[in-house]
Structure formats: structure tokens, C-alpha cells
Design a protein that fits this description.
Radius of gyration of chain A: 19 Å
CATH architecture of the largest domain in chain B: 2-Layer Sandwich
Largest sheet of chain B: 8 strands, antiparallel
Number of strands of chain A: 0
Mean pLDDT of chain B: 84
Bound molecules: protoporphyrin IX containing FE
Largest sheet of chain A: none
CATH superfamily of the largest domain in chain B: Alpha-D-phosphohexomutase, C-terminal domain
Radius of gyration of chain B: 40 Å
Oligomer: heterodimer
Number of domains of chain B: 4
Number of domains of chain A: 2
Shape of chain B: elongated
Largest interface: A-B, 50 and 52 residues
Strand content of chain A: under 5%
Helix content of chain A: over 70%
Low-confidence stretches of chain B: 1-9
Chain lengths: 277, 474
């Protein structure tokens, strides 16, 4: 047994949690959200254990470093941040339908990490440039940002679904929170993500400056994180204008999440410094 | 004349107004985002040949004409940034004075009518009198809204509470931070420089070449690399590299530091970063190939030995039909499967009707070639001339350094700090105001609680609900 084996089990625990939330929603069984919550807690705990275990394993291999250094590790951490953020959201706002969407994203992230042949799960030594505390701060904050945008994306999808059915003819959509709440929550998640993405970009710049002497070099990954930041900055300002609330905000939030995904995966197909995460 | 002037004023006014518009901000932010994509898809600042190969003549000319091959430094991208700055400054200035007045007023005014029609309004009745109620409510409200204020109006009594009024300034902190980051970047590109240099161990430089302008820049001191060390993981990947650097002025050391990746040296505003490293080719490290070489050829079948004297590059006919031998190269320190064999000669042995074979003749291991077990082997008896080390030498490294001066970096960093502080204030604190209205109603008191927030209205709704549940039990 190893940490990557544990994490592949956790993948299915997330799937189970998402399934429970979806079932509770579709079959109107509020009681199912109780096991759903506990399964989510189990998944997050398992995910946490997997990360700590992997950390310990790297020390056993004599190349000890925090497990945030390649695509596999970042996907595992991404799933963890989504799980944690969702639990906080449920605790704070008691909105359970979001779980069906958000935990599906956590499941997909882990499934991609565990099952895709392109994502190596072996622990490899760090090249000198990656040995920096700024890097750790950079990865952690960026991923909290990404997770918040992922949750905002889920809520925006719910908003658009709900908008198509204002008369409440669909009993599925009736259970969703009201439009005003969804809109407000999207915004809350976006500003949370915006703060973390800002800290992520800043710590990344400070790290680059200490390693290479340039805080900003327009490499594709940097540029894409800036593009993401600009899109969400536009969203934040758009909300101040009447007529730009609701639907358009949801659409920008979805566009922003597409930029997040591209920053994360797409950029690896472009030339640049960030060979990982 | 008058209408004209008014028209001018009006135009001026509307230009100002259009720069104060948030609509322009959104257009600019989206335009910046969209155009930035170009530079990530089309490689930037490459050699013209590379572009010609990839895109062909016509497309290359077009891209070059539109400045897309170095778009982040192009006039149109900078213009977009400039427009954003103008937009930001005008917009912030226009609103700052009213926000300032609101935040720093001595006597904040409360208007009950602003609270009357709020959606989050909660009501309850109480038997106690208005005076008594307000006396018990005030400390409770004050515990979460530190500034409270009592007011009578139209026969009703009002208790107002408020907090985080100053958080309205957070937005200006964010906007200031964006300005600082852009200004810092501008300072860096106008007053700073960036270059790359290599220094072999034991040597020094005083000048470097700028990466952007190709000018020669005088550092103002002498930079010497005393020593360079590199260590490897078992996989052969470099684990850490370190240069021991000394700064000299008039030949005297004034500052020294060992730098690693992520741990630069800073001296007089100039930062020196460990970037790469490499091995110094032997001709640059005081070593050179021997001029004349005496070889022995051993023919094992006959037990005979033949001697020959040759030079590098010379082709030798071998006796007894054994073909030809050419010394093709000399290495000051030859590496074979992780072993350092020291100074070695490389030779090509061609025999009739056979594939030529390449031989390695390390000067320090004369019988090395015998291990080939090929029937014939060569040994090096003696060399003359050149400069051949006695024993395998430590490789000589050079260190590759990134050297930079950027006086704007502290402006950018203060922008970073303000961005984070400003975002935190703006997003997580909000200017919250509650109003507890007590209205006398047929011997009873009707209490109405409602709240206003400039942001995060859901949190305010929850606060009002909590308050209206807590107050009746006081
Ligand atoms: C990249 C640049 C910019 C960033 C990162 C930025 C960031 C922000 C943030 C975080 C807020 C607070 C939003 C909230 O209340 O929740 C804000 C508000 C605002 N921004 Fe910007 N902004 C930028 C550029 C601009 C520009 C160019 C303008 C020019 C018109 C502008 C105008 C405003 C206005 C009017 C507000 C609302 C202020 C208020 O609530 O009184 N922003 N901005």
C-alpha cells in the first residue's frame, strides 16, 4: 500500500459523496444529505492523509520535499482544496445541492491524477529552482484560488439552470436556492478566489525574482494567470453596473473558470518555464 | 462665442466622464485579457529565422508589422495599459472625495428612511417601554457594532449601530496598488538593466552585456568567482549548485557571499543570481593537447611490437597490413560511464575490409586498450609538447550569472502588499449599519430591525436575523 493507492481509493469516495448529493437532490430525499456530508468528510480526511503520507514517503526516499511539485501532486491538492472549501460552504450557507457539482469536480481532478497515463505519480527530486518557501506559498494559494473559482463555476451553472425555469415548473430546479442567493454566492466565491489568486500571483512573482531576478517575464503560464485575474477583475467591476448582474456575471464566471482550466492544463502545450502544475 | 465655449467645456467634461466610467474599465480589462493570449500562442522575441521557418515570409512581415512578435512591449499594448491607468486615476479621484467625506465625518448622519424598506427587515413586539428597551439594546448592539447612536424622529426612537466605515477606503488601496505595480515596472524598464555573464572559477568580470539593448554595462566593481560546486542526485539531476563570489574594489575584496539558486547576492542595488553552470573547455583552463606522441602497436598473434611517432590529425600506415591509425582528438579529461579517465587520446583504426573502430587511449592508463581483446592494441609511450596534466584533474567549471539592477522592484513589492491588504479589506470587511427602530403602538413597543451593507449583503441579512432573535430575550 502506498499514498497513491490510498488516493485512488479517495477518488471513489469523492464520487460516492457527489452521488449522494445528486441523489438527495434528484429524488428529494433531504435525509440523504447526512450520509453525503459524512462521506465528504471521509474523502477530505483520506485526501489529507494521502498528502501527508506522500510527504513522509518523499523523506523516506531521501529527497524530502512538500508534495506540491508536479502535476500529480497539484491535482491531488486541487481536489483537497475543493473538498475543504465545499465543506466550509455547506457549514456556512447550508446549501447542499452545490455538493453534487463541486464534489464531481474534485472527483474528476483526482481521477485524472490517478488514471491518466500522462500524469506520473512517482516522487521525483526537486531541481534547485523549486526549493523555496515562496514556491510552497505560491502553489497553496493558487490552488485555493482555483478551488474557489471551481465552486463559483458550479454555482453559476446552477444559476443558469434556474434562470431557464423561472416559473418553477421543474421540481428539480425548485430546490435550488433563489437567484439572488446564487448570484451573491457566486460573487462571494469569486472574490475569495480573486484574493487567493492575487496572493498566488504575488508569491509567484516574488519567487521568480529570488530565483531568476525577474518578477515578471511574460511566460505563458504567468500570462495566463494574469488573463484569469483580468477576467475576474472585469467580473468584479461588471457587478457594479445595473444590467450586468445575474446572467452576465454567471457567464463571466464560467469564462473565468475556462481560463483557470487553460492556465492549469492548456499551458503545458505552450513553451515556457513552468513544466509542472 | 459662448455656445462654442460651452461646447468645448462640455466635450472636455464628457471626455473626463468617459474616463470615469466603469464600462470603459470592463472593456479595457477584457481587451487586455484577450490580446494577452496572442503572446502566449506566438513565441515572443525569437530570431527572425525561427519565425521565417515557422510562418513564412508574408505572415512574418504581418506579425512583425503589428508588433506581435514582442507584443507586451509594443506601443499598442502599452497604450492599453496607459488607458487603464487614466481610467483608474480619473475614476478613483472622482469618487475619492465623497468617500473621504463619508469616512472621516465627525458626526455621521443616519436617515431612518434608508432603512425603512429593506428586504432583510425583521419585526417583533415587546411590552416594555421604548426607553427601557433602548437601554438594554444599546450595549448588545454595541458589542458587534462599536459605534452606536440614538436618535428621535417623527415620534419614534432609533438606535443605529455601525462598523468598518473605513473599509470603504479598501478599494482605493487596491487601485493604488495597481498603479504602484505598473509604475514600478516602468521604473525598472527605464532605469534598470539586466544581463547574463559567465565567470570561470578563479576569474572575474567588471562589465556585462545588456540582454535587451546589447550595450556594455560597467558594474562599478569587479566580480570574482572563487569557487563553484555542484552536487547531483543519484539520477544525475543537479541537486544544488553554488558559487562563492567576491566583490572587489581596486583589487580589494569588499563583500563576499556564496550564492545558490534562490539565494542571490545583492550589492549596491545590483543583484546577482545563480542561473546556470558549465564546464570550461580544456583549452581555456591552461591545458592543451600534446604535440607529438610516441605509440607502440602490439600485434598479439606474432608477439611483435612496432613503434610509431605521430601527431593529432595525422594518418599513419601501419606495418604488416594492419591498416591505418589516425589520432582524431584529445580530451583533457575524458568521461566514461561516470569515470574520469583524465587526459586521453581518441583514435580511429581502419583495417582493410573491416569497419573502422574507435579507440580510447588514456595517458594515465597505458594498458587500457588491451582490455579490448582485439588481437592488436596500442599503448602510449611518451608525449612531447602541449600541456598535459599529470593526473586526472578536477573539472574546471564556469558559473552562469544573471545580473540585474531594478530600482523599481520595491515600488512593485509595495504594490503587491497593498494589493493583498486592499483586497482583504474590500472583500472581507464591509461597512455595516443596523437600525433598531422602536415605535410606540397602543401601549406596546413595535421593534423593527434592519441592516445596510455596502458589500456581502447575505452576511448582513444573517446579522439582522441573529439580532432580531437575540434582542427580545434581553
Ligand atoms: C486591474 C485593475 C483593477 C483592479 C484589480 C481593481 C480592483 C477593484 C476591486 C477589488 C474593487 C472592489 C470591488 C468590490 O466592491 O467588491 C474595485 C472597485 C471599483 N473599481 Fe476597480 N480595479 C481595477 C481597475 C479599475 C479601473 C481602471 C477603474 C476605473 C473606472 C475602476 C473602478 C472601480 C470602481 C468605481 C469601484 C467601486 C468603488 C466603490 O465601491 O465605491 N477599477 N476595483
Amino acid at each position: 500500500m502506498s499514498s497513491s493507492y490510498l488516493l485512488s481509493i479517495v477518488t471513489f469516495v469523492y464520487a460516492l459523496a457527489a452521488f449522494f448529493y445528486a441523489a438527495a437532490w434528484i429524488f428529494h430525499k433531504e435525509s440523504l444529505t447526512v450520509p453525503a456530508r459524512w462521506v465528504t468528510v471521509a474523502a477530505v480526511l483520506g485526501n489529507t492523509a494521502g498528502i501527508i503520507w506522500r510527504w513522509a514517503e518523499s523523506y523516506q526516499l531521501g529527497i524530502g520535499h512538500a508534495p506540491f511539485s508536479n502535476l500529480y501532486e497539484s491535482l491531488v491538492f486541487f481536489a483537497w482544496t475543493i473538498g475543504v472549501l465545499y465543506l466550509w460552504l455547506e457549514f456556512r450557507y447550508k446549501m447542499r445541492v452545490v455538493g453534487a457539482f463541486a464534489l464531481t469536480l474534485a472527483f474528476l481532478a483526482l481521477a485524472y491524477a490517478s488514471l491518466s497515463s500522462g500524469v506520473g505519480s512517482q516522487i521525483s527530486p526537486l531541481i534547485p529552482a523549486l526549493k523555496s518557501n515562496w514556491l510552497m506559498a505560491h502553489v497553496i494559494t493558487c490552488f485555493f484560488g482555483y478551488a474557489a473559482f471551481a465552486v463559483a463555476f458550479s454555482i453559476s451553472l446552477m444559476y443558469l439552470l434556474k434562470l431557464r425555469d423561472r416559473e418553477g415548473s421543474s421540481s428539480l430546479l425548485k430546490v435550488l436556492p433563489g437567484l439572488r442567493t446564487l448570484d451573491e454566492l457566486t460573487y462571494q466565491m469569486v472574490v475569495f478566489g480573486f484574493l487567493f489568486l492575487s496572493v498566488g500571483i504575488v508569491t509567484g512573482a516574488v519567487w521568480a525574482n529570488s530565483a531568476w531576478g525577474t518578477y515578471w517575464s511574460w511566460d505563458p503560464k504567468e500570462t495566463w494567470s494574469l488573463i484569469t485575474w483580468l477576467i475576474y477583475a472585469a467580473l468584479i467591476h461588471a457587478r457594479m453596473m445595473r444590467g450586468w448582474q445575474g446572467k452576465r456575471i454567471a457567464l463571466i464566471s464560467i469564462l473565468g473558470f475556462c481560463a483557470v482550466i487553460f492556465t492549469y492544463f492548456g499551458v503545458n502545450y505552450l513553451p515556457g518555464l513552468h513544466s509542472y502544475a | 462665442m459662448f455656445p462654442d465655449r460651452r461646447c468645448l467645456l462640455h466635450n472636455k467634461y464628457s471626455l473626463w466622464n468617459s474616463f470615469a466610467s466603469v464600462k470603459l474599465t470592463i472593456v479595457l480589462l477584457f481587451t487586455l485579457a484577450a490580446t494577452s493570449i496572442l503572446g502566449t500562442v506566438i513565441p515572443q522575441q525569437k530570431d527572425p529565422e525561427a519565425y521565417l521557418r515557422q510562418y513564412g515570409e508574408g505572415v512574418y512581415r504581418l506579425l512583425d508589422f503589428l508588433n506581435i512578435l514582442d507584443m507586451y512591449h509594443s506601443w499598442w499594448f502599452q497604450l492599453l495599459l496607459l488607458l487603464l491607468v487614466a481610467n483608474l486615476v480619473v475614476c478613483s479621484l472622482q469618487r475619492l472625495s465623497s468617500t473621504w467625506k463619508l469616512v472621516f465625518t465627525r458626526e455621521p448622519s443616519f436617515r431612518p428612511d434608508r432603512f425603512r424598506n429593506l428586504k432583510n427587515k425583521q419585526e417583533f413586539k415587546d411590552k416594555r417601554s421604548a426607553d427601557e428597551l433602548l437601554r438594554v439594546f444599546q450595549p448588545h448592539v454595541q458589542s458587534s457594532f462599536p459605534r452606536t447612536h440614538l436618535q428621535d424622529q417623527d415620534g419614534s426612537r432609533y438606535l443605529f449601530g455601525e462598523k468598518h466605515r473605513w473599509s470603504r477606503l479598501g478599494v482605493y488601496v487596491v487601485h493604488l496598488s495597481v498603479l504602484l505595480m505598473l509604475i514600478g515596472g516602468l521604473i525598472g524598464s527605464l532605469l534598470g538593466f539586466k544581463g547574463f555573464t559567465t565567470i570561470p572559477e578563479g576569474e572575474s568580470v567588471t562589465r556585462i552585456r545588456s540582454q535587451n539593448t546589447d550595450e556594455v554595462i560597467d558594474l562599478g566593481f569587479e566580480l570574482k568567482c572563487e569557487d563553484f560546486e555542484v552536487s547531483f542526485y543519484d539520477s544525475g539531476q543537479p541537486k544544488e549548485f553554488r558559487s562563492d563570489l567576491v566583490v572587489l574594489k581596486q583589487g580589494k575584496p569588499v563583500y563576499e557571499k556564496s550564492i545558490r539558486v534562490n539565494q542571490p547576492l545583492r550589492y549596491q542595488g545590483i543583484s546577482i543570481y545563480q542561473s546556470t553552470y558549465g564546464r570550461v573547455p580544456p583549452e581555456h583552463s591552461g591545458q592543451s593537447a600534446p604535440e607529438e606522441i610516441d605509440l607502440l602497436l602490439h600485434h598479439q598473434a606474432s608477439g611483435k611490437e612496432y613503434s610509431l611517432t605521430t601527431r593529432i590529425g595525422e594518418k599513419n600506415e601501419l606495418p604488416a597490413g594492419l591498416g591505418t591509425l589516425t589520432l582524431v582528438d584529445y580530451k583533457a579529461n575524458f568521461h566514461l560511464k561516470g569515470m574520469e579517465l583524465g587526459p586521453s587520446l581518441l583514435a580511429r583504426h581502419s583495417r582493410p575490409e573491416k569497419e573502422p573502430v574507435y579507440l580510447l587511449l588514456p595517458l594515465n592508463y597505458p594498458n587500457f586498450d588491451k582490455m579490448r581483446q582485439a588481437g592488436v592494441y596500442f599503448t602510449v609511450k611518451k608525449t612531447r609538447g602541449g600541456h598535459v596534466p599529470e593526473a586526472p584533474v578536477e573539472p574546471v567549471y564556469y558559473t552562469g550569472l544573471q545580473i540585474k539592477k531594478d530600482p523599481g522592484v520595491w515600488v512593485v513589492y509595495s504594490g503587491f502588499i497593498l494589493l493583498i491588504i486592499g483586497c482583504f479589506i474590500t472583500f472581507f470587511l464591509s461597512h455595516q449599519r443596523v437600525c433598531v427602530a422602536v415605535i410606540q403602538d397602543e401601549g406596546k413597543s413595535r421593534v423593527v430591525v434592519s441592516g445596510l451593507a455596502d458589500r456581502n449583503k447575505l452576511a448582513m441579512d444573517r446579522k439582522v436575523e441573529q439580532l432580531s432573535r437575540a434582542l427580545p430575550n434581553l
